Amino acid sequence: MRASARPVLLVQGRASGHPAQTRAPHRYLRWRNASARHPDVLAAQRRERSRIRSEKGIRWGLRPLAGVA
Fold it and tell me: What's the rounded Cα separation, in Å, for the pair 25 and 37?
């Protein structure tokens, strides 16, 4: 966990004691690591989104180019 995230989690947490405060970030990290998607799947999804944007003529979050869509 990044060093900056731990104090925020500890201060903002609703837990009443230190053991509970340390369990919450650990539980989140276990969930995040268990729910991670395969890098190849993520890359394929990025390529597909890029292909669709390219077909629509969308560049850098702007509207489609005139006459393309």
Answer: 20
Structure tokens at 9: 């989690």
**Which residue, 31, 30, 8, is CA-closest to 21?**
8
Residue range 47-51: average pLDDT?
94
- Which of 37-46 are b and which e, b meaning 16 or more Cβ less than 10 Å from the residue's Cβ? eeeeeeeeee
Distance CA 38, CA 44 (A): 10
Task: Convert the pLDDT of each residue in 4-15 to its tens digit.
Answer: 555 555 555 565
H and E: helices and strands count for the chain: 3, 0
